[in-house]
Specification:
Blueprint lengths: L13 H18 L5 E3 L12 H22 L4 E3 L26 H11 L6
Parallel strand pairs: 1-2
Length: 123
């Protein structure tokens, strides 16, 4: 759940957000070298394009996500899982059943998140 709040500000540089997430990944790797690392894009946000606050932040999230994918692709020890397209409805926006406040997952959103990651976990 790192990044979307950082990208809420219009002055945020997505490259800085991506660099901070990369630093966190490096710190986890240093402390837990055998841990399985799964990285996924910052979740989509906003229930419609009518919310300029969410729509603008979502653009910054998308830019950050592109940088994170490049980072993950360069590190074979990181598993990149992108399920964002399944978190939006036919309009391309997040249903309130997934994120009632348009940013944070509901119980159903957390269940969806777990179901998306679970098949990728080492057993």
């Amino acid at each position: 759940m790192i990044g979307t709040n950082n990208n809420s500000s219009k002055d945020t540089n997505p490259a800085n957000v991506a660099a901070a997430i990369e630093k966190i990944v490096a710190l986890v790797r240093a402390k837990q070298p055998d841990a399985q690392l799964i990285l996924h894009p910052i979740f989509p946000r906003g229930a419609s394009a009518n919310s300029s606050r969410h729509a603008d932040a979502r653009v910054r999230n998308d830019k950050t996500n592109a940088l994170l994918k490049t980072f993950a692709d360069a590190h074979p020890e990181i598993k990149w899982i992108d399920f964002n397209d399944k978190m939006v409805d036919s309009t391309g926006w997040v249903p309130r059943t997934i994120m009632a406040d348009e940013i944070h997952p509901t119980d159903a959103g957390y269940d969806f998140w777990m179901d998306a990651i679970l098949p990728h976990l080492k057993k």
